[in-house]
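Take a look at the protein record below and tell me what you see:
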Amino acid sequence: MNNFKLIQEHFTKIDCPICNFSFTQEGIKLIKQENDYWVIKLDCEKCNHSLGFAIVVIEYNDYNNNENTINNNPPITVDDVINAHKFIQELGSDWTKYLKKK
């Protein structure tokens, strides 16, 4: 299984805030792929609501090239979500300036 499939599986556990339908793999699109991050777009296949974008940081582990490493990490905590939210808020409306240019 490739890393994007793992990411799709993760996001299919999230429900659309409008219709409560679970996101499907078809609604999870890879928009941009760089060496250390991917930009993912989430759309509900049932009501066509767009949840928005997610930036997924890819961490490569030199000593263990196991694609299932994502499953060996501890669960995300409420504090992790709050910290990520604060971090994203502080980026400002021009957050794209932090993305690497090709």
The chain has a mean pLDDT of 79. The CA atoms of residues 64 and 70 lie 12 Å apart. The chain is about 25% helix and 20% strand. The two ends are 28 Å apart (CA to CA).
